[in-house]
Write a structure and sequence with these properties.
Organism: Pontibacter rugosus
Distance between the termini: 98 Å
Oligomer: single chain
Number of strands: 16
Pfam families: PG_binding_1, Scaffold, YkuD
Keywords: Cell shape, Cell wall biogenesis/degradation, Peptidoglycan synthesis, Transferase
Protein name: Murein L,D-transpeptidase
Largest sheet: 8 strands, mixed, barrel
Strand content: 5-15%
Pathway: Cell wall biogenesis; peptidoglycan biosynthesis
Strand order of the largest sheet: 3-4-5-13-11-10-6-14
Helix content: 25-40%
Shape: globular
């Protein structure tokens, strides 16, 4: 069988064919590269996707004052994606760009100012991009500029929306030492662009905390009231009770039930009946007043707070929600935390984002205000000693000892060499109390465990620089007061046994009976939690309950006023 062998193409002919086929393309690429260098647009292209040059990125962002402080974030975002264009597929914007524009337009619904985020006219930039003929370097430059503008605009907006307009840790006038909100906005943007997955709703441009979302819904309602001219002023001074007749009752009806049609010619409209009494009682409850259903000075004052003032109060508290970490809970089989809302005089136990326990609290008086910070409850101390701070020894105990050297014994207290198990008792006669100060006092004073101990029978420990913790109290009558700012800074809880039982539920053998037994023991006992539980001591003067009703409280320590000075 004969085989005919194919003759090879002579090498010179092959090379010539190759050059004829590819030389035009090579030449075109060389010209394109040269053109980009000459125009200094610095746009690098490859066959997969256009890229942004880092030098041009820096120049572009630094030229805009509102973008400049996000330069490091923009750099990180593009560096981690190898500088690939982010907001385009081919020459069309991805749908997320429209979502961003919509979020910027609706920034006022978040208590933000839309003009702060419209640094560039993004729609106009896209229109100019579309009108530019395809294939030219000018179109690629416009693509790059628009991509950078979209990214910087997102960071400009998202920084305020997710982390707060103000940094509470750097503003001296703001007291807020809660652990920092460490949202990585570059990762959030990757989630929006569907380049990574996240359990947080960044892709919806949505807030992370339900408490914030509820306030935002209420803000819309209150701005609608504002647009209608606000609510009527309630002109009244006299105390008005059930079945009384007074001209002010008509204004109260209009103020608290604006949707109800009232016949001002009907004398019934001026009668303080059960319906009006219930409206007033509900109002008093939502505003932290004594709930007696009676019109009096405090109720008149709260009724006449303007809608503008309430809107500002809502916006201030929305800002505080942005300062909180995105995840408030521990990670594990139970996602839980404890939150103390100082102006509300309330302790809430949260589990899987649901309130599972609520109780009243006593907080620090103005001169000894409870600090705003976060920590982790690590252990419980049953039948505790009260280790008296030296400042209290000087201010409160010294005057008694100057009058009566047996005063400590009458209060089940003792002077010791040190706090802790190595403490040794010493007589009060060793101290010259007339010259004693908190700075030269060499001993310590503590109160022994027992029913009269100032800390009650259990304290909840999260060691911190403020020496503040949650604890029981023998002064249970204080929980019936409306304003409960009586302490030296620590937080007294209304139901200590229930809280202790909840925190120890994962610890074998620690049911409520054992908790009560430990509380009533004569010896101090430390019990560690199986897992630390975050605790937040925060300051919210406006919030929304599950029924959709908004609640307001007075600015107990003046923190609202300080924040307003910075924010507005």
């Amino acid at each position: 069988m004969n085989y005919t062998k194919a003759l090879p193409i002579p090498l010179p002919i092959f090379i010539l064919a190759f050059l004829l086929l590819f030389t035009p393309m090579l030449a075109s690429g060389a010209i394109l590269s040269l053109s980009f260098q000459q125009t200094n647009t610095a746009i690098a292209l490859n066959t997969a996707q256009a890229k942004v040059d880092s030098a041009y990125l820096t120049q572009y962002i630094q030229n805009e004052t509102e973008f400049r402080h996000h330069l490091d974030l923009v750099k990180q975002f593009y560096r981690e994606r190898n500088y690939k264009i982010a907001w385009f597929k081919q020459d069309e914007l991805v749908p997320q760009a429209d979502r961003l524009l919509e979020a910027l337009d609706k920034a006022h619904k978040e208590g933000l100012k839309p003009k702060n985020y419209k640094v560039k006219n993004l729609q106009q930039m896209y229109g100019n991009f579309q009108e530019t003929s395809a294939g030219g370097e000018n179109k690629q430059q416009k693509k790059q500029e628009l991509d950078l503008a979209l990214t910087a605009s997102y960071f400009n907006y998202a920084s305020d929306f997710y982390k707060g307009v103000l940094d509470p840790h750097s503003a001296e006038a703001i007291e807020w030492e809660v652990k920092k909100n460490k949202i990585k906005l570059n990762k959030a943007l990757e989630t929006i662009l569907q380049e990574r997955e996240s359990s947080y709703p960044y892709y919806e441009f949505e807030a992370l905390h339900s408490g914030y979302q509820k306030l935002r819904d209420v803000l819309v309602q209150y701005r609608q009231i504002q647009e209608r001219g606000g609510w009527p002023k309630v002109q009244g001074e006299d105390v008005v009770k059930l079945h009384d007749t007074a001209s002010v009752v008509l204004n109260v009806r209009k103020r608290l039930s604006p949707q109800q049609q009232v016949n001002e010619r009907d004398s019934v409209a001026f009668v303080y009946d059960k319906q009006v009494q219930q409206l007033v009682s509900d109002f008093q409850k939502r505003h932290g007043l004594v709930v007696d259903g009676i019109l009096g000075p405090q109720t008149y004052k709260a009724l006449n707070v303007t809608v503008d003032q309430r809107i500002d109060q809502i916006v201030l508290n929305m800002e505080r929600w942005r300062w909180l970490p995105k995840n408030l809970s521990t990670e594990g089989k139970r996602e839980r935390y404890v939150m103390v809302n100082i102006p509300a005089f309330r302790v809430s136990v949260m589990e899987n984002e649901q309130e599972v326990m609520r109780m009243k609290a006593v907080v620090g008086k103005t001169m000894h205000s409870t600090p705003i910070f976060s920590h982790q409850i690590q252990y419980l101390m049953f039948a505790p000693y009260w280790n008296v701070p030296n400042s209290i020894v000087e201010q409160d105990i010294k005057p008694h000892l100057l009058q009566n050297r047996n005063w400590l014994q009458s209060r089940d207290m003792e002077m010791v060499t040190t706090f802790g198990p190595n403490a040794k008792r010493v007589p009060v006669s060793r101290v010259n109390w007339s010259t004693m100060t908190q700075h030269n006092f060499d001993y310590r004073i503590r109160q022994r465990p027992g029913p009269h101990n100032a800390l009650g029978r259990v304290k909840f420990m999260f060691p911190n620089e403020y020496a503040v913790y949650l604890h029981d109290t023998p002064a249970d009558h204080l929980f019936s007061e409306r304003d409960r700012d009586f302490s030296h800074g620590c937080v007294r809880v209304e139901r200590p046994a229930d809280l202790a039982t909840y925190l120890l539920q994962d610890k074998p053998g620690w049911d409520k009976n054992r908790v009560l037994k430990a509380m009533n023991a004569k010896q101090q006992q430390r019990v560690n939690l199986e897992q630390n539980v975050p605790v937040y001591l925060v300051y919210f003067t406006a919030w929304v309950e599950d029924d959709g009703q908004v609640y307001f409280r007075d600015d107990l320590y003046g923190h609202d006023n300080a924040l307003a000075q910075e924010l507005f």
